[in-house]
Amino acid sequence: MRVLGVDPGLTRCGVGVVEGVAGRPLTMIGVGVVRTPADAELSHRLLAVEQGIEQWLDEHRPEYVAVERVFSQHNVRTVMGTAQASAVAMLCAARRGIPVALHTPSEVKAAVTGSGRADKAQVGAMVTRLLRLAAPPRPADAADALALAICHIWRAPAQNRLQQAVARQALHATNATKGRTA
C-alpha cells in the first residue's frame, strides 16, 4: 500500500509518501513541504498548495491519501487556513478517484508512538526509527506527514474490516425488515 500523508497548512503543508503493509517494515518513498508566502493572497496560496499536492500525486502515484483531521484550536485564523489546505488536498485526491482518510492528531500520535499525547519530538523520533532514517525529517510538518501515512497503513486494514461489518449488519437489518413487511 502506498500512502501520501498530508499535514495541512497554508505556510507549510507537510507531505510524505510511505509504502508497506501492516506488520512489515515500511519504506519512505519521499518527504517534503509545500510552502507558500505568508504575504500572498489566500487564493494564490491555495493554488500553490494545490499545485504542490498535484506534483506529489503525479510523481508518487499513491493508492490512498491520509490527511490530518482539522480540530478546533484557540486561533480561529490558523484553523481556517489549515481547514482550507486540508480541503485542497482532499479535492486533489478526489479528482483522481484516490480514497481519502482523515486521522486526528491524537490518533496519529498513538499509532506511531503509543501515546496520543506525544510531542512533536517524540513523533519525529519514532518516524525516524520506524522508517530507518538517518535523521528526523525537518521541518516537523514533514515528519507529521510521514506519521499520517504510517498511521493509515497500520490502521486501514482494521478500519476496512469494521466498515464491512457495519455494512453487513445494515444489509442484514434491511433484509430482516423487508421480510417482516412482505
Number of helices: 5
Unreliable stretches covering 5 or more consecutive residues: none
Strand content: 15-25%
| Gyration radius from CA atoms, angstroms | 18 Å
Structural class: alpha/beta
Query: How would you spell out the order of helices and strands?
Result: EEEHEHEHHH
- Mean residue pLDDT: 91
Largest sheet: 5 strands, mixed
* Shape descriptor: globular
Description:
55% of the residues lie in helices and 18% in strands. Strands 3-2-1-4-5 form a five-stranded mixed sheet. Helix 1 crosses helix 2, helix 3 packs across helix 5 and helix 4 crosses helix 5. The radius of gyration is 18 Å and the shape is globular. The model has no long low-confidence stretch (mean pLDDT 91).
Q: What's the SSE blueprint?
A:
Blueprint: E1 2-7, E2 12-19, E3 27-35, H1 42-60, E4 64-68, H2 76-95, E5 100-103, H3 105-113, H4 120-130, H5 140-181
Helix pairs in contact: 1-2, 3-5, 4-5
In a nutshell, what does this entry contain?
With 182 residues, the chain is an alpha/beta fold. Helix content is 55%, strand content 18%.
Kindly list the characteristics that best describe this protein.
alpha/beta; 182 residues; globular; single chain; 5-stranded mixed β-sheet
